[in-house]
Write a structure and sequence with these properties.
637 residues, alpha+beta, Dna Topoisomerase Vi A Subunit, Chain: A, domain 2, six-stranded mixed beta sheet, five-stranded antiparallel beta sheet
């Protein structure tokens, strides 16, 4: 057994392993100011990032779960390694030749410290073996399979696709010759016990190497090529010290940088679909490995997307257009609200998956499929509606009862109301208040955010009353975790701390546009102080706001907004400010547009022509304003 690793070698490994680069292989890090970086913690589930990295000191720490340490400790924790294993792994990547010595000082690896390293090396050698065999005469069937699906040999090489020969011990003999022990091959899932000893697990199959986020091969996905062979069409590596199918996404190692850059992840169903998407210009595609999309997959994507409270990213699920694909999409809907970011579904009407679509219609068709995504909420609602006959009153009512629970389950209050209005339009009931009432009733039964609390609710006309007004005319309870409420808070923090970033557009947004009553109260204080355009120096501006606050509660909130860090933005980040402001503006415009459309439907053009034309003109103007916001890319996408 090797002795202790020399202290100077350990120090060299730390020096040559930039902590931000190592951690950045597992999660997206963003600038947090002051030379720090921040991301979503990989060691506990969280909505907002509390995982901090300080490159200057080579340290990381999570304020959420209190875990922390240096780069070696991170590798230990993320990959469940001993100290020695973590040092060895980092050394191999950094090109540091480790020296071992006996005696005091230093660190001694455990008896099994090299196990993971051996298994990784065996999988790397196996991937090379399979890739070489794809070029052999026997690999012709595999090459034909790839060619029929639009892939060239260069494409196969880029993804490491290989071929497992129809031999009982082809890989076993090869790896034995490379010095690997039988027990490692069996433990890693490359071989299995036969009557005469270890035998290859994969035979006569096309092989896709499955890699972790750092790029190491940890398993394989295998597609049967010979109809007469036993076994399922797709066979994956069994659970092993390296491979846990529920917590790995195929293609994530290749897609992670583009996922972070584009803030988009496309979830497809198979290995060839991932290849087709990447080759068609959708390099954010990933797939599960022999299991349904679950909680651990969500955690991976959230870390890569930096999925927090900004509502900027998107996760797009692609499913076949058949009934099984519909069911898969609705299963994804059940997990939708575990994301903070927006979720969509992209279904090809003719049922083609991305691989077949690329073969038949070309690369552009795959890009168009992703671009034609539909919000997952809309997909789930329409799926419930289409099961009923909308040509009859009975069918429309049945469709309402089927779709209303879906709408009621939406946690975002503003979004829930918008979809309730859309549901009314899709059903053709033409009675928004009736549909909204049905949704509110179901939401209240579920104990959702839309249920009135402490007797507070909307007034009959949908307007929100001020604090202290009689019951039935008060503002509704609000959820502080609601992304829309958080966005309001971010905007108000900018208005208090950096008013110059907002300008006169902010002053045109009324207090009524804010969902949370405390936020509306602060907006009124800002207006009473002359608006952000009248703000002077920082200290003077905050003092003026505090002076005009009507009570201690509002004064305390102004103080909090003045000291709380602005999320994901620097002092000079005017784009972030513009995006926040545009989202609030668009939300307000959408509410006004909805009210005008409702009013327009109640007017008789023949008898109330003047009023009708005035309302219609206002509606066109508001629609144009909203269109401008969306064209600028600052509103909701």
């Amino acid at each position: 057994m090797a002795g202790r690793i020399r202290n100077e070698d350990i120090a060299l490994v730390r020096e040559r392993s930039p902590i931000e680069a190592v951690i950045g292989e597992y999660l997206q890090l963003r600038n947090a100011g002051g030379g720090n970086l921040k991301g979503l913690c990989p060691f506990h589930d969280e909505k907002s990032p509390s995982f901090n990295v300080t490159p200057a000191r080579g340290l990381w720490y999570c304020f959420g779960c209190a875990a922390g340490g240096d780069v070696i400790k991170f590798v230990q924790e993320i990959d469940h390694l001993s100290f020695g294993e973590a040092v060895e792994r980092l050394a191999a990547k950094a090109g540091v030749q480790l020296r071992y010595e006996e005696g005091t000082g230093g660190y001694t690896p455990r008896q099994d410290s090299g196990q993971r390293a051996r298994l990784l090396e065996a999988h790397r050698a196996a991937a090379e073996f399979y890739a070489e065999r794809l070029q052999s005469p026997e690999g012709g069937l595999g090459r034909k399979f790839l060619s029929e699906r639009g892939f060239e040999l260069a494409d196969a090489a880029a993804f490491g696709v290989g071929f497992a020969p129809r031999e009982w011990e082809g890989l076993v003999r090869h790896l034995r010759g490379r010095g690997f022990a039988d027990r490692d091959l069996i433990m890693g899932g490359l071989a299995k016990e036969g009557r005469r000893g270890p035998m290859d697990r994969f035979r006569g199959r096309l092989m896709w190497p499955i890699r972790d986020l750092s790029g190491d091969v940890i398993g394989f996905g295998a597609r049967k090529l010979y109809d007469e062979d036993d076994g399922p069409k797709y066979l994956n590596t069994p659970e092993s010290p390296l491979f846990h199918k529920g917590s790995v996404l195929y293609g994530a190692d290749l897609a992670k940088k583009e996922i972070a850059r584009r803030r988009q992840a496309v979830v497809v169903e198979g290995y060839t679909d991932v290849m087709a998407c990447h080759l068609s210009g959708v390099p954010t595609a990933v797939a599960t490995c022999g299991t349904s999309f679950g909680d651990d997959h969500i955690k991976i994507l959230r870390r890569l997307l930096m999925d927090q409270d900004e509502f900027r990213g998107e996760v797009i699920f692609t499913f076949d257009g058949d009934s099984a694909g519909q069911r898969a999409a609705l299963r994804a809907f059940a997990d939708e609200q575990k994301f903070v970011t927006q979720t969509f579904v992209a279904v090809q009407p003719d049922g083609l998956d991305p691989c077949d679509l690329r073969v038949r219609q070309g690369d552009a068709a795959v890009r168009d499929l992703v671009a034609s995504r539909v919000p997952l909420f809309e997909f789930a609602i329409r799926s419930a509606i289409q099961q009923h006959d909308l040509d009859t009153a009975e069918g429309r009512l049945a469709a309402l009862d089927a779709a209303a629970p879906v709408v009621a389950s939406i946690k975002d209050r503003a979004l829930r109301q918008m979809y309730a209005v859309s549901l009314d339009r899709w059903l053709g009931i033409m009675d928004e208040q009736f549909v909204l009432g049905r949704v509110r009733e179901l939401s209240a039964r579920r104990g959702g955010a839309g249920a009135p609390a402490n007797g507070r609710g909307r007034t009959p006309n949908g307007r929100r009353g001020a604090p202290g007004t009689p019951a039935g005319d008060e503002r509704p309870a609000f959820d502080p975790a609601d992304p829309e409420v958080r966005r309001e808070r971010e905007l108000l923090k900018l208005a208090v701390q950096w008013p110059a970033l907002l300008g006169p557009e902010f002053d045109q947004v009324p207090a009524d546009a804010f969902i949370a009553p405390p936020h509306a109260a602060v907006r009124q204080v800002i207006a009473s102080a002359g608006g952000v355009t009248a703000a002077g120096g920082s200290a003077e501006w905050v003092a003026r706001l505090l002076e005009r606050a009507p009570n201690d509660q509002v004064r305390a909130l102004v103080t909090q907004l003045g000291v709380e860090p602005v999320h994901a933005a620097q002092e000079s980040d005017d784009r972030y400010a513009a995006e926040l402001l545009a989202r609030i503006q668009e939300r307000q415009l959408t509410r006004l547009i909805t009210e005008l459309k409702s009013k327009l439907q109640r007017l008789n053009p023949a008898e109330q022509a003047e009023e009708y034309n005035r309302v219609f003109g206002d509606l066109v103007a508001y629609e144009q304003q909203r269109r401008v916001l969306r064209e600028r890319g600052l509103g909701s996408q």
